[in-house]
Records
---
Amino acid sequence: MNPSSYLIAGGSSGLGAACARRLADRGTGCVIADLQPPDDTLRQELGERCHFCATDVTDESTVQAALQTAQDRFGPVRGVVICAGIIRGERILGASGPFDLNLFRRVIEVNLVGTFNVLRLAAQVMRDNAPNADGERGVIITTSSVAAFEGQIGQAAYAASKGGVASLTLPAARELGRFGIRVVSIAPGVFETPMVQQLPEKVRQSLEAQTVFPTRLGRPNEFASLVLHILDNPMLNGDVIRLDGGMRMGAK
Ligand SMILES: NC(=O)c1ccc[n+]([C@@H]2O[C@H](COP(=O)([O-])OP(=O)(O)OC[C@H]3O[C@@H](n4cnc5c(N)ncnc54)[C@H](O)[C@@H]3O)[C@@H](O)[C@H]2O)c1
């Protein structure tokens, strides 16, 4: 599959950053497409095999530019990992009134529309790749969440956005299969990332306690291990894979 490139949307932090580290370790050229640049430590770790492109996943032109940069610098884009996302909690009927509709729209816009935007533009560039011996032209990995299936109180917007990402997987895989493009989604439980660090301590402890085994938060590197496996295993397609230590989230 070499030379080829990978693009990680939301790769400056958390789960996406772990993927960038593992791909850089393999010597694979990759582009981090994120609103914010990686910090200096991550940048130094990644070195020259990784390039940052300021990108908003909801914006067509910046995503296209990031894909083009990946292609120009490192070769045909063979893999795209979409980790960009936001979490915002609010009750449907809260103390200060009903759920803010603009907030609901924003979460759907970034998590669902943004994911779809990257997926469709990635598919467009992958379609022109030369197929490998198996006929494969590219792999697109999205990030859903266990909240797609067990959304908690206060997670209406987030759960709806991640449910959309999960539901998108099979129709996208069915449609893009004829171009040799696979689509797989990962539904993580709760992982130690800046997104989760912003949650109140009480909430984090409660989530950790709902994990069957191991009874701890997931490590970003464990998410990256699954990403690498999906990239390498051509039989994985059209599925949403839970990565959650057996966790089933309760109502709160
Ligand atoms: N951490 C968890 O426990 C967990 C669990 C389930 C699902 N997820 C999902 O995994 C993904 C990664 O989460 P994380 O925990 O690494 O979060 P994070 O906050 O550490 O990283 C998210 C990254 O996305 C980027 N981003 C946000 N909006 C963007 C936009 N419009 N365009 C481009 N980049 C944007 C941020 O700048 C950030 O670098 C998210 O989609 C999240 O919903 C995380």
---
Amino acid sequence: MREFDLIGRLLRPLARQAKESLGLEDDAAVLAVAPDRELVATLDMMAAGRHYLDGDDPALVARKLVRVNLSDLAAMGATARGILLGYAARGDLDEDAARRFVEGLGRDLEHFSLALLGGDTISQARGEVFSLTALGEVPKGEALRRCGARAGDLLYLSGTLGDAPLGLAALKGELARREAWIERFYLPSPRLSLGQRVRPIAHAAIDVSDGLVADAGHMARTSGVRLVIDRARLPLSADTCRLLAEQPEWWTRVLTGGDDYELLLAVPPEGRDDLMRAAQAARTPLAWIGRVEAGEGVTVRDEAGRALSFAHPGFVH
Ligand SMILES: [Mg+2]
């Protein structure tokens, strides 16, 4: 059996439920969009050895690929509709790995009620690469952007910070293993419900994929403002809290490591109550971590109010 046939055959059942995919029998998927809505599209790629470790369970790689893309839709306040998959396998297709990948993909498509709308599979001599395009929609003109933060806004962060980069450090043997960290590294929780609910409340949003300092920097730059974050207010898991109490040198990794996929929001003070209600309805913890001021760049202050400096604010693409 040719490898393309195999992957195609494995993927086809995942597309069958979605009539928009036309059963993967046609040249492209066809999506209806209501006249008062807009399509939101995003693409993320993952390469062996760069975005995941050799030997990682392909099912987890597939699920992370789905989740990082959905996190981008969440940051735009969008509702997810479906995905397109690019699967570039290494020369000799590992059948088991392909099956595991499709298994993980199917599991998360079901979990997030997403349709596989189409895609392509190739084989090439070098390492494997996966790409995923996620499509979503928002009411016309209402997509959340990075660029809307204004001086006086309050900054909020969902979930907890640092678990994923510490999970990666643990996987690399730099830290003792904590299963909660490792799970967060492989399986981030895209904050779709929160993103949709805060769409009418927040001035700006971004998901923390490259590291808090770097992503806050993107918001500051596109909005033309300065973001001031109080380290003491950052929401941390119990494991992370314990580590930082014993080994404060890990703060840098927590603040600049990526992969947490939490939402950073800039919200006007008068939107605070609505924001808390939205977070409650989305069952997503949300912490006030700082404020927006006139100026530029990002300042993270320690407990004594001193500005911290970072050699590298985050992941560089
Ligand atoms: Mg993003």
